[in-house]
Amino acid sequence: MARQLSFITMFLVLLVLSGCQSSHQVEVKPVEIKPIHITIDVNVKVDRALDNFFNDIDAAEDKIKKD
Asked: Is the pTM here over 0.85, yes or no?
């Protein structure tokens, strides 16, 4: 009886341990690199107008400091 009980116990332990096994598979696909196109639209008139505006302020500030 003890021998049958030990065989049953070992069988149950093997059954439980076989359920704990897992395997994983990771696939690595090649990375595709595509070119990036960037369009920058610069409005030169606004930039020049801002420069002129700030130059007027700087000139007025220099005039105030001189007085």
From this structure: no
